[in-house]
UniProtKB/TrEMBL annotation:
The lineage of its organism: Bacteria, Pseudomonadati, Bacteroidota, Chitinophagia, Chitinophagales. Residues 1-22 form the signal peptide. Keywords: Signal. This is Outer membrane protein with beta-barrel domain.
Length: 467
């Protein structure tokens, strides 16, 4: 198949996934009520991401500049003229560019941001309703965010070029001073994390809030909005969609229309066209899988042993995990059976481990099925750490302080001598319950069980969930 035909197939596959537009029946949004607070929410979101992206970009550029300076400093010990072999760095200029307004046309396509920007421009063309000043302010914030993303794309291109220049420089030396290889590895890893950080921000933009979805849903009922989106969005500019001529717009190509167009362009019967379309879809999926495996543009092929920590590009709140667990204790002659209910708050250090704190409540259940009675039997303060051993198996340990005496009020807990320590170590099995819930089973050994009064449990079995 000719190259032009292959490109046409992929282009038409993309069109197949574009929602169909309804027929034109009007050109006003008077019948649509945009929710109060929509502009404030969008403006706040855009300004927050713009500030965060600029701050993170500066941090990553400073790190890469330090690693490069360290690398060059090591090389100067064996070659004082090393600076003449490498073009001067542009990190300071790149940082300055992130703070300057960008007047060139947008070039980085983010579906969610494109929808926001085009929607705001459409609302600006409609008389009445929203405040022109508020619309202009929100539009400027969204436009600035688009500019920052465009600038980040240029920065990534420069980083790729700089990485190649450093690799070429290092290759000129047969014996490298200690530390050069590690400094270059740190440079490349920082470049990787910056790219992933930018991709995370793009993903956040592709996850609209409830109000943003509501506005787009309402406006989608207005044919004029549909036509404006098809004509003025960044996607339309990138693919050069033909402008709407004011006539009847029946909608973008359906599957049947695409097949008919393919028949005209590349020939073949219906089954052959369908097969070609499926083949093109497979090619697109294959390319996406390849990029996901090796990073954007395949730029991580020179780090085959690098295992990225996906937690590094997440915010503090995104790295928190919430948990709950329960364990039971048998009744004895003097004490009732108990249920130990625990809550925890953890922080993910990496994809392999986390640490956290927790609080437990020991509730008395009575001495048997015929004598069930609830009572306050104790409280506990916990600290723990989990670390992956293999697949879904973890080693877990922790230190706890337990108030193991029945109490009737908070005042009873002030007796420090009644709090007894526990040192726990064991194994943990984690399993997936849903996309957001993870179950776990723990088997723990208490090294201080013999010192507890009354003597505690040597082996503790806990079942819980993390969110």
């Amino acid at each position: 198949m000719r190259t032009g035909s292959a490109l046409l197939l992929i282009y038409l596959v993309l069109l197949c996934h574009t929602p169909a537009l309804a027929s034109l029946a009007g050109d006003s949004i008077r019948q649509v009520s945009v929710p109060v607070g929509y502009l404030d929410q969008v403006d706040s979101k855009a300004q927050r991401l713009n500030t965060t992206l600029s701050k993170k970009t500066t941090q990553y550029l400073n790190r890469m500049e330090r690693f490069e300076a360290k690398l060059l400093g090591k090389l100067r010990t064996v070659d004082p003229s090393v600076d003449t072999r490498l073009p001067a760095g542009q990190y300071q200029q790149l940082e300055a560019n992130m703070q300057q307004p960008v007047t060139r046309a947008a070039s980085t396509y983010v579906p969610g941001l494109d929808t926001l920007s085009t929607t705001l421009r459409f609302l600006q063309t409609q008389p009445g309703g929203l405040s022109p000043g508020a619309l202009a302010q929100t539009g400027a914030s969204v436009g600035q965010l688009q500019s920052r993303l465009d600038e980040s794309t240029l920065i990534q291109q420069y980083i790729t070029q700089r990485k190649q220049e450093l690799a070429q420089l290092i290759s000129q030396y047969t014996q490298l001073p200690p530390g050069v290889t590690q400094a270059f590895a740190n440079f490349k890893q920082t470049a990787y994390y910056y790219r992933q950080q930018v991709e995370q921000y793009k993903t956040m933009l592709d996850e609209p809030t409830k109000m943003e979805r509501e506005v787009v849903t309402l406006l989608s009922r207005v044919p004029a909005y549909q036509a404006f989106l098809a004509k003025n969005s960044l996607l339309a500019a990138l693919f050069r969609f033909p402008a709407w001529d004011g006539g009847s717009l029946q909608g973008l190509q359906t599957q049947n229309q695409v097949q008919q167009l393919l028949q005209q362009q590349v020939g073949g019967n219906g089954q052959a066209v369908q097969g070609q379309l499926q083949a093109a879809q497979s090619q697109v999926a294959s390319m996406q899988n390849g990029l996901s495996k090796y990073g954007a543009g395949g730029q991580d092929l020179d780090m085959p042993n690098f295992k990225p920590n996906t937690q590094k590009t997440k915010t503090f709140l995104q790295r928190l995990e919430y948990g709950a667990n329960i364990q039971f204790g048998r009744s004895s002659y003097d004490f009732p059976a108990t249920g130990d209910l625990g809550l925890s708050l953890g922080y993910k250090l990496s994809d392999n481990g986390s640490l956290g704190v927790g609080l437990s409540y020991n509730v008395g259940l009575g001495t048997g099925w015929s004598n069930i009675a609830f009572s306050n039997q104790g409280l506990g303060l916990r600290g723990y750490i989990d670390w992956k051993l293999w697949k879904t198996w973890y080693v877990t340990g922790g230190y706890e302080l337990n108030y193991m005496t029945a109490f009737s009020g908070i005042a009873d807990l002030r007796d420090r001598s009644a709090w007894q320590p526990s040192a726990l170590l064991g194994i943990e099995k984690k399993y997936r319950v849903s996309s957001k819930v993870q179950g776990n089973v723990q088997l723990l050994f208490d090294a201080l069980y013999a010192q507890e009064i009354p003597q505690g449990q040597m082996i503790r079995f806990r079942v819980g969930y993390n969110f």
